[in-house]
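User: Predict structure, ligand pyridoxal-5'-phosphate.
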Amino acid sequence: MQVPLLDLKAQYQTIRAEIDAAVAEVFESQYFILGPKVKECEAAIAKYCGIDHAIGVSSGTDALLIALMAEGIGAGDEVITTPYTFFSTAGSVSRLGAKPVFVDIDPKTFNIDPALIEAKITPRTRAIIPVHLYGQMADMAPILEIAKRHNLIVIEDAAQAIGAEYQGQRAGNLGEYGCFSFFPSKNLGAAGDGGMVITKDADRAEKLDRLRAHGSKPKYYHSIIGGNFRLDALQAAVVTVKLRHLDAWTARRQANAKRYNDLFAKAGMIEDGTVQLPQVTADRHIFNQYVIRVPCRDALRNHLKERGIGNEVYYPVPLHLQECFANLGYHAGDCPESEKAAQETLALPIYPELTQDQAQYVVEEIVGFRR
Ligand SMILES: *Cc1c(COP(=O)(O)O)cnc(C)c1O
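Assistant: Predicted complex:
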């Protein structure tokens, strides 16, 4: 049996007619950059997130970059974030000349540990970027409280968490900005790169709109310096179609997670501590990834790979130990929980179309390896 980590072909089979029609419409119109399809997508995402403004951009990375740019964050500024995330969370900060400051994670959720944030705040700190890793929101209440007390901007990296909820609120609408990615492997993926920034604030929305088109308004009059961070109409059309299916897909991901939990429990893997399951602490975990912790992780990876089971490590090297950030002066031991997670985490196939037999096979092979 083959169990890929993600099966986008299976997903396409279920929505082919809708996608093909939407794509054809864009070709008929020959309107490829921004335009009505992008507006429609922005309105649909804003509604889905329960917020007033959504600005389509070229990627999740550019969503983060443009939010930081809108706040004028740059040289001399510090931005607090987690080292246990995809590179672009901190890469965007560095590209603007600002300094990422890493705060270790809560080992239960893999999200930034709010209790460790305050010790890292300096007079140069401008913003906090919590990441809602794997589809579960960070513990936002204390983060927002700290931000308010220190007058900091909160930019939610919700690239893996569209539709996730915390205390009844959707990901992206708790901070000043929420950033989404439509990279194809995200829960809501485009047919290429794409992203979105959401905000409650009309002035911020207006600035984002300008920044994504070289800071111009009206056209060819540039009051600020932006870039080309525009969302394509084709990507917007695909995302708008897929958004209609997102809640059904999320429900299946959640059902798959529960199935794995039950299978691991039945196999006695929880009691004996050989597998640690994902801990759900927020209201709505959307399971962009189902990540377990295991000892001898790398040997297990090979075992699964040889048996046709896709798996991945998100992420093998925490950002504070990445070569390109050596100048920031971090060392092994500075963020121990992130370093431990990097050794132990393993993402298993959780995509909506995963069958019961496939899930059973995955667990059987893990049990077989452990025994
Ligand atoms: C995917 C991702 C991004 C970047 O999104 P792209 O669309 O690939 O640029 C940023 N942060 C996190 C946590 C992500 O998972």
